[in-house]
Amino acid sequence: MKRILPLIFLFSLMTVIETSYAQCTPDPYVTKPGIYPDSASGFPPAVATYPYNLTITVVVPADTLIPPLPLLPIDSIGVTGVEGLPEGFQFLPSRPSGFWPGGTKGCALITGTPTKAQVGEYPLVFHVVGYISNLPFPYDVTFYSIKVLDSTHYGIDDSGDKFSLEVSQLSPNGQIKLFISSPTSGNFLFQLYNINGLMVYSETLNITAGESHLSIEPGKLSKGIYLISLSKAGTSQKIVRRILL
Fold first, then answer.
1. How far apart are CA 183 and CA 163, in angstroms?
2. Domain limits of the chain?
3. In terms of CATH architecture, what is 5-149?
């Protein structure tokens, strides 16, 4: 597959030199060369005091075109350094070597738990090296960042998980599928926040004790990363999940 050289390096954000490596699974539905979330969606925000675990999927093309040269094979691509992650965060590739051969698919984790003192935005710089026909090509990728939100400010500070919540991706008809397990009946407040922490949808749900399968129709939303907050009325119990729409 023909690709211009700068694009090749953007696909390499999955790799970084680390002594440890990630236990993650690439998205099986992603087949087009690229990195997901892409630059348009960006990385989802972290919430202070909540664990942050972002799985990134990448598909690296097997070759590239550098005019006026003929089609060249990609040997491997890796990241020699990452700058800007919040203190305590790690970027972990699924391969111990930290390099991906051309024509392969993989994943990596960005993981950590930010404190309230770390609220703010953290621009990231990935120092990338690609090997094409045994020649190194260095490149910096600078368009990603991680924003740490103030959990108190956005009303999602309590992490009590006495009920459970599972969320499915947006269905073709625009619905978000929820699976809720609660030991008691009651009213629950469903809230949807965009990547900037602004609430874009809210609905009160009447949940019975046991397991419930629900569909939420938030209306037309822009593609990107969202935060889902589900809280039980009259209690401090709240669960926060992330979803890519």
1. 7
2. 5-149, 164-244
3. Sandwich (2.60)
